[in-house]
Design brief:
Elements lengths: L6 E8 L3 H9 L1 H7 L5 E8 L6 E9 L4 E14 L3 E9 L21 E10 L2 E9 L6 H24 L1
Antiparallel strand pairs: 1-7, 2-3, 3-4, 4-5, 5-6, 6-7
Helix pairs in contact: 1-2
Length: 165
């Protein structure tokens, strides 16, 4: 039995308005600009942001040593603009068919379906974000990827906010 929690929780404050941060989660063009760990691009982000709507995202790595794609699909469970977004996430193939996580090198016991919960709060014109990814344990590569993605998101939010001023 392990004492490790089976979720990653990230809390950050961005110097950008809540509507912009919401849009970064729900506009595919913006999402593609920040999502994923360093070195990964997002060539595909399909999002039908409504309760019961689906999402499909591809993260890609291109390097001289190798190329790799990871596909994810899910369903939106809660959509409450601009405060809360909840969706499921599963590994899938390019057609959106769910595949076992082990097919992509995840350890035995990694869940087929995880859940991402995003809560946003306006804090005097800035945005406080709390993201919990249930099923991705703290201290794993997935948790590290989220931390890197949030760094990219913060930089993009600041850039977009500054450009709008």
């Amino acid at each position: 039995m392990s004492d490790a929690q089976d979720w990653v929780r990230i809390e950050r404050e961005f110097d950008a308005p809540i509507d912009l941060v919401w849009k970064m989660w729900t506009d595919p063009a913006l999402f593609k600009r920040w999502y994923g760990p360093n070195g990964m691009s997002v060539p595909t982000a399909e999002m039908d942001v409504k309760i019961g709507g689906t999402r499909k995202v591809c993260m890609a790595l291109q390097s001289p040593e190798r190329s790799m794609e990871m596909w994810f699909t899910g369903v939106y469970k809660e959509v409450s603009a601009p405060d809360r977004l909840v969706y499921t996430e599963s590994m899938c193939d390019a057609d959106g068919t769910i595949i076992p996580p082990q097919a992509m090198g995840m350890p035995e016991g990694f869940p087929d379906i995880t859940e991402v919960i995003i809560d946003l709060q306006d804090v005097g014109g800035k945005t406080r974000i709390v993201m919990v990814h249930v099923g991705v344990p703290e201290g794993t590569a997935g948790a590290g990827g989220w931390a890197q993605a949030f760094d990219k998101m913060a930089a993009l939010a600041q850039s977009l906010f500054d450009a709008a001023q």
